[in-house]
Amino acid sequence: MATPLTSAEVKGLFDKLSNWGRWGKEDESGALNFITNQKRIAAARLVQSGETVSMSLPLATAPAADNPNPVTHLMVQTGVDASRSSLAGVADYFAISFHGFSTTHIDALCHVFWQGKMYNGFDAAEVGSQGARKCAIDIASQGISSRGVLLDIPRVRNVEWLEPGDHILPSDLDAAEREHRVSVEEGDVLLIRTGRAKRRRAKRGWEAPQAGGFISMPGLDASCLPWLHERRVAVLGCDGVSDVFPSGYDDIILPIHIGTLVVMGIHLIDNADLEALASACERLHRYEFQFAMGPLVLKRGTGSPVNPFAIF
Predict the structure, then answer these.
(1) Whole-number Å distance between alpha carbons of 139 and 118
(2) Which of 166, 174, 233, 276 could disulfide-link to 218, CB 3.0 to 4.6 Å?
(3) What fold does the segment set 7-58+101-311 form as a domain?
(4) What is the pTM of this model?
(5) Quick count: other Cβ atoms within 10 Å of Cβ 20?
(6) Residue-level pLDDT at 84
(7) pLDDT in tens, 135-150
C-alpha cells in the first residue's frame, strides 16, 4: 500500500478540490451539473438489448449488526379484512430511517458538514427541525440519468470480495479501467464494487459496529479524491458507503463523504447491491451502460431510498 496521506494533507485536498462557486454561489446541484442533455442522450445510445439490472437491496425489516433501525412494515388492511368489506383490497404502511448501512439510498448534499458548512458554503444551520432549506434531495426530483460505469475491484484483485477495512487506492481504479476497457468520463455515475453484498450473504451477516456506531467497511482511501475530481464524476455509488472505515484519521472520520458531498458536490449512493450488475457486465463484456434513478420527491429531505438500475 502507498504511504497514507496525513490528516493535514487530506484537509489540504478539501481546499484544493473545492467546487464551491463553480456553478454560481447559489448552486445546490453540485456535480449533477456535469450531466448535460447531451450526456443523457449519449447514455441512451448505449442501450442495445434493453436488459435492465437493479442495484437495490431489498428493504431490510429485520434487525442486524449493520441494521439497528430496520424498516417498519405494517399492514393497514389485509386480505382477511378485505373479505369483510364491500371494497376488496389490501394496503401497507412503512417507515424508513434510511441513512446507515442497510438501505440503498442517495445522500443529499446537505447530509454532511465540514467545519460547519455544507456544499457551496451554505451553513449547517440551514438544516433544522423542518428539514433542509439548502441542498435537499428534491434538487434531483427530475431523476438522474447518465452513463453508468462499474469498476469491479475484487475482480481486478482476483478475490471474491474485499475485507472490512481494505483501502481502495487510485491505482486500483486505474487497473479496473484497464481491465474493463472503460474510462470514467465527465458526468458519469461511477459505481465501485467491493463485494460487500456477496460477503454478507456468504457469512450470513456483518461484523458488529465499533465505538461510535460505525461498522468496519472496505472503501475508497482519501487519496482517491483527486482522481474523482479530475474525472468530474457526477454521482458516486458503492455497495458500502464509499468510505473505508476505519479511515485512519481521528479527526476526519469519513473523508470521502466530506470530499464528495461537501467539497465537490458529488451525491453519494450508499449500500447498493452490485452483484447482479457485476455478473451482467462480465457476461456482456461491457462495464458501461445507461444509468437511471429517481429519488423520492421529499421536500427538504436529506436523502432518499432509491432503486437505481442499469439498462444494457
Answers:
(1) 15
(2) 166
(3) Glucose Oxidase; domain 1 (3.50.30)
(4) 0.96
(5) 17
(6) 72
(7) 999 999 999 999 999 9
